[in-house]
Amino acid sequence: MTQVLARAIYVHRSALFAFLALQPFNGYAQRAVSIRVDSTKHLGSLHAPWAYFGYDEPNSTYTNNGKKLVNELAASSRVPVHIRTHNLLTTGNGTFGLKFGSTNVYTEDPFGRPVYNWTIVDKILDTYLALGAKPLVELGFMPKALSVQPEPYTPTFHNPSDFKNYYLGWSYPPKDYSKWGELVYQLVKHSVNRYGRAEVETWDWEVWNEPNVDYWHGTAQEYDKLYDYSAAAVKRALPATHIGGPASTSPRNKKAAAFLQQFLEHCSSGTNYATRTKGAPLDFVSFHAKGSPDINGGHVRMGLSKELEDADQGFKIVRSFNKFQNLPVILSEADPEGCAACSSKDNPANAYRNGPLYPTYTAMAEKELLDLAEHWRANLQGILTWAFEFEDKDYFAGYRDLATNGIDKPILNFFRMAGMLTGDRISVQSDGAQNLDRLLENGVRDKPVIDGLATRRNNEISLLLWNYLDDDAIGPDANVELTFSDLPANTSRLLLRHFRIDRTHSNAYTLWKEMGSPEAPTGEERERLEAAGQLELFDSPHWINSRNGRASVSFSLPLQAVSLVQLSW
After folding, report:
1. Nearest of 420, 421, 392, 417 to residue 406 by alpha carbon
2. Quick one: which of 452, 502, 439 has its CA closest to 475?
């Protein structure tokens, strides 16, 4: 009876959505949008910067749901995905905890001599490599035996009010930098022995996380010292592998920008704390870019402009150093906001996470981050999404995750779409796009952006399209008129495949609500939810005609929806 009632409510709401979609929202009305894809205007190789992921809880990696998700991430990409986790060196018994975890990699005997235990670290790294992913090894956090303030050490995190008791002994500098450096050296050496020199030389090693805020209870100079000892240890163990940092927070903030600036100055010309030479090894630069959603008029309003502003300022700082301006840049966290482990119950603005707004925002952000990198001539290597899965939490509880209890969320289907963008980036011109300067200043507030990102590989074109507005509200569909030009003259028929994420496609959340939001789905319900969580075709693959090197396609694209249109011949 409950499910019947839920179905009736869902049908009623769907009808209401359809009615409201006919009404103008925020002053704009339904419109036709012309999008033109030039298959011969190449803009350079697109190397899948979105194939980067991370999370706080390392011990979720080797759970059944964790391994399932790593496998799905690896399968979504034609290049290896890179995975970063906090707490890889944290002391504890390996029990899963919200926004925490441990490996107990380092303790000391009664005489203060190091004791290394690689058991849990091996389980984490083994999982990545066995399933086709690569570690982006974050060197953190401080083992209890090394911390200058070891007590209290282990936090208990439930919601944002716990932050005052969160940054404890694990967030402090080492009492002995030489012992810290030796720990790093032994970790790299152990990795080489276990996985082979050739494999580990392809990894990135990042020193700490957000050392300009409470993740580091030391000065900027003490972080530089930690970096120097870490870099010296990594290079001593394996000179050809890659070391970088500082993984600092949002450079739109003046203090955060100053921290990144001083770190690069230190690496360029400062006195190295470990070697007493000039400068420090730096193979990539990392910093974080975060948006800032809020509640506006009773609904979520995303803060895309803030994430873009972070990247803009960070790229500008890196570009100001002649020595580093061509180094790879990794946005080692790039997200709509800052707390994956805070649910939508903790903050109503986090309600974007379950439905199609999250993937649509991400599609828009990824493209604009690429354009910003091009503007600053930055070598953008990675855009890391800080989201994974949370063990033993309610279904669709509003955490920033990619799957919930093994059920894939719509955001994961964005990465399946992005995985199809391979080869060279080609030109997309849309009269529904907006100027990058305007997006930096205002975000997407007055009217939606309907835009795209396209690639060509051999006899295949893939086009990612979205209809995005910062406001999570009902609005009209866009009537898309899509034209592909400069196709091979001798090709008259092309196979079209069209994938879609929206309220009713590639969306297990909608089905879960239709079921009545069950907290313990039956076996049959779970099978249906798992199927609904996969990437879905909008319609059946079919042939279209090309004439004089041109082909056209028309369709409606709802607000907060993403399409992947693929042509092959």
Report:
1. 392
2. 502
